Amino acid sequence: MFLIQNSGLWRSDDAGATWRQMDSTDTRIRNGQGGYNTGVYVDPKNPDIVYTVNTASYKSTDGGNTFTGFKGAPGGDDPQQLWIDPTNGQRMLFGYDQGAIVTLDGGQTWSSWYNQSTEQVYHIAVDNSWPPFVYASQQDAGAIRTRLRGNQGAITPLDWNPVPGWEWGSEAPDPLNSNIVYASGIGVFKISYPSEQWIDVSPQLDPGLHARQSISQPLAFAPWNPRELVAAFQFVMTSIDGGAHWTRISPDLGYPKDTVPTPDSLRGKPGLLVGGTIQSMALSPVKRGEIWVGTNTSLIKLTQDEGKTWQDVSIPNQPGDVLAIEASHFDAGEAYVVFAWYSSGDFTPYVYRTRDYGKTWTLITNGLATGQPSGSFARVVREDPKTRGLLFAGTESGMYVSFDDGDHWQSLQLNLPNTSCRDLVIHGNDLVLGTYGRGIWVLDDISPLRQMMAAVSTEPAHLFAPGEAVRVRRNVGNDTPFPPEVPHALNPPDGAIIYYSLAAKPAGAITLDVLDATGTVVRHMTSGPVEPVKEAARPPEPNFWIAPPFRLPAEAGGNRTNWDLRADAPPVFTHTFEINANPGLTPPSPLGPLVPPGAYALRLTVDGKSYTQPLTVVNDPRSPATVADVRAQYALETRVVAAMQTAWDGYQQVAAARGVVAADTASSLPAAVVTAAKAFDSTLVAVGGEPTSGRFGGGGAFRPGGPPPPTFAGVNGTLGRQLNALETGDLAPTEAMQAAYAAACKDLTNAVTRWTGINGAALTTFNAVLAQNNLKPVPAATVALAAPRCGG
Fold first, then answer.
1. Coil, strand or helix: which one is 348?
2. What is the pLDDT at residue 708?
3. What is each CA distance from 135 to 190, 241, 324, 438, in whole angstroms?
4. pLDDT tens across 464-497, in order?
5. What is the pLDDT of residues 678-692, one digit of tens each?
6. Residues 552-555: contacts with CB within 8 Å, 24+ apart?
7. Residue 760: which residues within 8 A CB-CB, separation 6 or more?
C-alpha cells in the first residue's frame, strides 16, 4: 500500500506495519509542492507501475523507488484524480481542474478537454456590446470571454477567447467602451481590444501602500459615474483615468469597530494584529456615493458619502466570509448579504436583508434547502433591477428565486445540473449564471418571472408580455457548417421568446398570431399537426441537420415558444436546406421575410378565447443598414412573396383544369376528343409548367428558337431564388435587385395574361368539342388572378 503526505510518498508491503519512503531525493514529491499532492495510483495489472498526482504528475516503473515526469495533458494544471482501466493499464482517465481527458496509449497522447463544459467559474461580468460578451474568471485556466449569441447559428469556438485576467478575480468591462476591460486577481489589469494587450495598473504596485487583497478581489464601475473604477483591498480605492492615478477613500476596513488597526508599514511582524481584506462590494445604483463592503473576517462596512465616513454595520454573532453583497436597485437603505462558514464545517445557507442601512438584519432563508450532500450554503444573491422584490440566489447545489423580497424561496433549477452557483448577472432581460464546474448558463428572457402574480395561476390561460426582440438572422454562414462534433452551445431562441401558461390541456389546437401595426396577420402558428415539407423525408444532407416542423407547445402549466421574426413562408414547389446549417435546427427554404423593426402584437387563442400582448422589434445594433433601408428591403420581399403566391394560385388553377382534361384523353373516347384534349393539355402545361423540373419549381426546358414562354411554376421558382438572395443581410434594394424582380414580375404578368385567355376563349373552343360529343365541359376557374404590380 502507498501513503502520500506532505513529507513525501511512503510504501508499506506488510499492511502498514512498517513503511519506507519512496524517491526521497525528488523534492517535488517529498514536499508535495506545498501540499498539493492528491493521490497515488497503481496499475491493477502491474503493481510496479505507480503514478502520483499533484501540481505535476510522476510515473514509476519500479514500484515507487524512482519517479520521472509523467506526460499529462499539454498545459494541464492541478490534476486531481486518475482512473486506470483495471483490464488495460494503457487506458486512463485523468481529472484536471480544466476537465477530463483520456489516454489510450499510456499517456503518450491525450484527448482534449475543450469538448466539455467544465469551467470552474468564480466571477462573471457582461459588457454593453451586442451580442454581449460574458467574462468569467475560472480556476487554473485564466479568465475567458464568450458571446451570448454566435453568428454561425450557435456559440462556437469562434465566439470564445482567453482574457489576460487572472483565474480567481473579478472582471469589469468599461461601460463606455466595451473594448476596455479591467480584471483583478493578482493586480488590476487593463486589457485593450482588439490588440488584447494588457498591463497592470494596480495601485498596489506602490510598495508604500501595503495593499492586501482577497482571493476574490471586487472590482466595479460606479453607477453614479461610469468613468470611476472602484477596487477593493483592505481599503477602497478609486480611479477616474483608467488606473493612471488612484485615490484611497477609506481607512483599513478589515478590523471590527473599536479596534485600532496595526500600521500598514509594520504589518507582518510577529505578534502584530493582521486584519482582513474586502471579499465583496456593492455600489448603490440609487444613491450616489453609497458603497457596501464585506470582508473575509465577517465584517460589513458602509459609506453613504463616497468614503468620507464609514460605519460598521456587521451582523452580531454571524461568523464566516461575506461572499456577496447586493445593494437594492429601489431603496438606498436596503441591501442583501450572503455569509459562508463552510470552512468550519457549517453548510447552512446564510442570507440576510436590511432595510435600514444595516442597523438591523433579517435572516431570509425560508425555502432554501439544507443538508444537501453536495452542500447547501449560499454563494450569491442578486436583485432584479426592474422588478422590486424579485431576487435570485445561487447556492452550492442550485438556483432559487423569490418573488417577495426573500421572505420565501423556491427552486429555479429547471434543467441546470446540480452544481455550485458562484455568481449571477442580470443583463437586460437575461439571467447569466457562472457555475463552479459546469461553465456558464443563461436563462433567456426572465420577463415572465417579472410578471408572476397569484392571479396567473387562476386564469385558464395567460400570455406574458415578452421582452424586446432583436432583429437578427439565424445563421449568416455561407459555406460548410461546423459539424456536430465541434464543441458548441445553443444560441438563444431566434427572435421573440414567448411564454404562456395554460391551466389545463386545451380541448383543441391553440394558435398564436403576430399582427403588425395595421392589424394585418404576418405570421400564424399552431399547436395542431403540421406536415413536414416533402423534401425532409429525403434531404440532400443527413436528416439530423433538419429542423422538425414548428408546432406550439400546449401543455398544462408553463409553455415557452419563440417567433423568429419572420412572416409566413411563401408557397413553393420545391424546398431546399441551405448550407448555413445547424444540427436539428436547419429550416426549409425559402423562409418568410424578416420583418422590419416596429410595434407588433401577439394574439394567443385558446379554446376560443384570445389573449394579446404588445411586442417591440428592434434592429440588430450591428446592422449596416438604417431602419428605412430595412423597410425598403422588406417592401420588396413582400412584393416577391405576393408574386409567388399569385404564381402558386395560377398553377393550382391550371392543375385543376388539367385534372379534368386528363379524363378526356382516354383511348375509348372519340379520336377528335382525344386529339383536342391532348392539344389543350399541352397548352395548359405551357402556362402552368412542371413543378419538378427545377430548383424551387421549373418552367420547362429550352427549345429551338429560344426559351419557352414563362410558366407559373417557373416564375415561382425564380422568385424563390430572389427571396433567398435578399435574405442574407440588411441592405436597401439595389437597382439590380429591383430589375431582377421587375423581370420576374413581367414574366408573371405574361403568364397571367396567357392563362386568362386560355381560361376564356381557348377553354370555350375545347368545351365545344366536348359538347359535340355529349361530354361534360371543363369548368372555368372562377377566381380571376390579379396581375402583379411590377413598377417601383
1. strand
2. 81
3. 14, 22, 18, 15
4. 999 999 999 999 999 989 989 899 999 999 999 9
5. 999 999 999 999 887
6. 552/510, 552/511, 552/512, 552/525, 552/526, 552/527, 553/527, 554/502, 554/505, 554/506, 554/509, 554/510, 554/527, 555/502, 555/505
7. 780
